[in-house]
Design a protein that fits this description.
- By secondary structure, this protein is α/β, with parallel strands linked by helices.
- The protein contains 10 helices and 9 strands.
- The N and C termini lie far apart (72 Å).
């Protein structure tokens, strides 16, 4: 007898539309990936369609005990890791490259994406559903009012596609906002043409005062007195990834000389 479905957890909305789940699963490319990992499968609505893709190495990671029990009863042979995704040692667990997929709870979007960045040389792809606002922010180009820290950092290392929007009524309980499905695929930038740790600091410092010109945020954050920077009259949302790299090199040079 099948186990009763686990109860909804705080902040979680279960996808109930099978056609949407299939579209997400079909969007996984996993080119050059040694394994596919679904994060937070819940009751397996998406899992069953990923299994149909017959990836050679497919696992799920789920922290909730009720969900794990349900998955074990309903998906015989499925490799289930009962753990918090954020506590996983990805380097030891997956010696090769990885594609991640999931219907991601809204409250973990930021931490999850920063973790993807942390393992960017291992995680070659992410396909998943996010709050529509987050999905748009990640995909937005320079000049957009929602272009921000995650836009720059993720676009520096990944090619990003907005695949399709998802209405609220396909979830239970129904959220107040719609969702968006995006796909990130690793680009050819093995390393940026600048100090990458400084690049992260520059991007975060720039958007810390996004309404101000870069002159104000950069000079105060890095204690620079020079007025020579060609980007000082711009606001952070006007700079492309390549221009942030150039700005980082300029700051690096000034920090040494001053």
């Amino acid at each position: 007898m099948k186990r009763v479905r686990p109860k909804k957890r705080l902040g979680q909305h279960f996808l109930k539309d099978n056609s949407i789940a299939k579209r997400v699963a079909d969007a996984i490319c996993a080119d050059n990936c040694d394994a596919v990992l679904e994060v937070g499968p819940g009751t397996g609505v998406l899992t069953k369609y990923i299994l149909e893709r017959r990836f050679e190495n497919f696992s799920v990671v789920e922290i909730d005990r009720e969900s794990v029990s349900y998955l074990k009863d309903n998906f015989k042979g499925l490799n289930i890791i009962q753990a918090d995704f954020f506590s996983l040692d990805i380097n030891n667990l997956y010696p090769g490259t990885l594609a991640i997929v999931g219907n991601f709870p809204y409250n973990i979007s930021g931490p999850l994406l920063f973790r993807v960045l942390e393992y960017r040389d291992r995680i070659l792809e992410l396909t998943g559903m996010f709050q529509h606002e987050v999905a748009l922010r990640i995909c937005s180009p320079p000049g957009s009012r929602v272009y921000g820290i995650l836009s720059v950092l993720l676009q520096a290392y990944y090619n990003i596609e907005y695949l399709f929007s998802v209405p609220p009524h396909v979830f239970y309980p129904e959220p107040k906002v719609k969702s968006g499905v995006i796909r990130l695929r690793r680009n050819n930038a093995t390393r940026l043409d600048c100090n990458e740790e400084l690049f992260l600091r520059v991007v975060k410092s720039s958007f810390g005062h996004r309404r101000k010109m870069l002159r104000n945020s950069i000079k105060s954050a890095f204690n620079i007195s020079s007025e020579e920077c060609p980007f000082f009259r711009l606001r952070p949302e006007q700079l492309s990834v390549e221009q942030f790299v150039e700005l980082t090199r300029w700051i690096s040079d000034k920090m040494v000389s001053e």
